[in-house]
């Protein structure tokens, strides 16, 4: 489908699952190619931490070039998403166990968590791509709470290493665009666990 996201204002929020940044950026390029006007958002951790997967400034640079906008990475920058009705849809992918816990419990002390709260206040879809080693352990209850919430949808996901990391689940990045399309039609793309 060519450019079927044209005229869609899409928030693309990234949390500190650093090992998935390469695939995330590839997916962001694909969403941009489909015509979406992307507002990039990063958690303070994703925005500022250098890790063995790369330097924060390099990732920020690359993301800003794809989207043609500065990254929203502070609470004051995220707050207008609510009153200005800035976004048609907000994607949080990768979403860490940490941010899942905040979202499930109404905690809003990060740029990404506040972006979600501000956006949901406008009764518009939030699409989550889980990436965490504790998805089937400490984060399982939070995923369950969020699945049962109005206006929250998930990008399909898989256990990535059932024997080596039995509680780990990672978003299927290639399903991102389809999950967004479904969420814009108030539908959960199935199967959600692949
Ligand atoms: C190299 C590295 C990789 C990480 N990968 C993940 C991950 O894939 N999933 C996850 O839930 N946390 C991961 N973490 C931990 C998070 O970065 C940490 O929980 C952080 O508080 C998340 O903050 P945020 O949710 O505001 O981005 C990783 C940390 C480091 C240093």
Task: Write a brief caption for the model.
The protein has 194 residues and is an alpha/beta fold. The protein has eight helices and seven strands.
Report on this model:
The protein is an alpha/beta fold and 194 residues long. It has a single domain (9-184), classed as Rossmann fold (3-Layer(aba) Sandwich). It contains eight helices and seven strands. Strands 1, 2, 3, 4, 5, 6 and 7 form a seven-stranded mixed sheet that branches. Strand 4, helix 7 (140-147) and strand 5 form a beta-alpha-beta unit. Helix 1 packs parallel to helix 3 (56-67). The radius of gyration is 15 Å and the shape is globular. The chain starts with 8 loop residues before the first strand and ends in a 10-residue tail after the last helix. The model has no long low-confidence stretch (mean pLDDT 97). Bound molecules: flavin mononucleotide (FMN).
Which key terms come to mind for this protein?
194 residues; alpha/beta; 36% helix; 18% strand
By secondary-structure content and strand pairing, the structural class works out as: alpha/beta
Indicate the overall shape. Answer: globular
Give the radius of gyration: 15 Å
Largest sheet: 7 strands, mixed
CATH C-level category: Alpha Beta
CATH fold title: Rossmann fold
Beta fraction: 15-25%
Secondary structure topology:
Layout: E1 9-14, H1 21-33, E2 37-42, H2 44-48, H3 56-67, H4 75-78, E3 89-95, H5 97-104, H6 111-120, E4 126-132, H7 140-147, E5 152-154, E6 157-158, E7 169-171, H8 176-184
Parallel strand pairs: 1-2, 1-3, 3-4, 4-5
Antiparallel strand pairs: 4-7, 6-7
Bound molecules: flavin mononucleotide.
């Amino acid at each position: 489908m060519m450019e079927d996201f044209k005229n869609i204002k899409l928030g693309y929020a990234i949390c500190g699952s650093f090992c998935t940044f390469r695939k995330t950026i590839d997916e962001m390029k694909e969403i941009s190619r489909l015509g979406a006007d992307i507002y990039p958002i990063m958690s303070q951790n994703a925005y500022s931490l250098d890790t063995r997967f790369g330097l924060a400034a390099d990732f920020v640079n690359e993301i800003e070039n794809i989207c043609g906008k500065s990254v929203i990475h502070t609470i004051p920058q995220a707050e207008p998403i609510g009153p200005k009705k800035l976004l048609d849809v907000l994607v949080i992918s990768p979403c860490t166990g940490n941010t899942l816990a905040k979202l499930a419990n109404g905690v809003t002390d990060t740029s990404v968590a506040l972006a979600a709260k501000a956006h949901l206040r406008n009764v518009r879809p939030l699409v989550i791509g889980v990436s965490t080693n504790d998805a089937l352990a400490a984060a399982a209850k939070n995923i369950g709470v969020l699945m049962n919430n109005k206006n929250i949808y998930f990008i399909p996901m898989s256990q990535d290493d059932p024997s080596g990391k039995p509680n780990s689940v990672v978003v299927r990045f290639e399903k991102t665009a389809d999950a967004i399309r479904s969420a814009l039609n108030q539908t959960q793309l199935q199967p959600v666990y692949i």
